[in-house]
Amino acid sequence: MNKKSENALLGIFGLALIATLGSLYFSEIRGYEPCELCWYQRIIMYPIVVISGIAIYQKNARIALTTLVFSGIGVLTSGYHYAIQKIDFFGERAPECGLVSCTGEYINYLGFITIPFLALVAFSGIAVMSIYLLKTIMEEKTA
Fold first, then answer.
1. pLDDT, tens digit, 9 for 90 and up, residues 97-142
2. SS3 for the chain, per residue?
3. Which end of the chain is flanked by fewer CB atoms within 10 Å, N or C?
4. Residue 99's closest CA among 46, 42, 32?
5. Is 2 within 8 Å of 132 (Cβ atoms)?
6. Residue 17 burial by Cβ neighbours in a 10 Å radius (0-12, 13-18, 19+)
7. What whole-number distance in Å separates Cα of residue 38 and Cα of residue 81?
8. Of 105, 32, 85, 104, which Cα lies nearest the Cα of 77?
9. Residue-level pLDDT at 92
10. Pick from 107, 93, 89: which is nearest to 34 by CA?
11. Which residues does 95 contact at the CB level (< 8 Å), separation at least 6?
């Protein structure tokens, strides 16, 4: 595995770890109870930390397809969650989420940064790094 692949794997792991610790900070330290969609996003993000951590240890860049699939599902989930928070059309048609409303915003920095937005950014970053990692794998095979 070359240095580019190693750095991409470290980036995937680092971003997933930061997102995981951030979600735990909001729920365990700040006391924000996650809604149903937030739980789904956690279910998608947390395994990326474990999978990419093992891949770093094994020096296995082929994990990129797995992290791309997880992050793609995460982008769709967090994108939808962000849409029901910020776009009236989606918010008015949002399903009931349980005890905590999925349209609620615990944080709203600068008028657009919410928890689902942060998850969307993290999943998007992981997807980009996964695509980059797949590209470097293909370049290694052709070289």
1. 778 888 889 999 999 999 999 999 999 999 999 999 999 999 888 8
2. CCHHHHHHHHHHHHHHHHHHHHHHHHHHHCCCCCCHHHHHHHHHHHHHHHHHHHHHHHCCHHHHHHHHHHHHHHHHHHHHHHHHHHCHHHHHCCCCCCCCCCCCCCCCECCCECHHHHHHHHHHHHHHHHHHHHHHHHHHHHC
3. C
4. 32
5. no
6. middle
7. 8
8. 85
9. 84
10. 107
11. 102
CB within 8 Å of 13: residues ≥ 6 apart = 49, 52, 53, 55, 56
Tokens found for residue 92: 């008015």
d(CA 75, CA 116): 10
Name residue 109's beta-bridge partners. 113
* Entry field: residues in the chain: 143
Read off the pLDDT of residues 125-136 as tens digits, 9 standing for 90 and up. 999 999 999 999
Residue 113 pairs in a beta bridge with 109
Put simply, whether the predicted model's pTM sits higher than 0.85 gets the answer yes
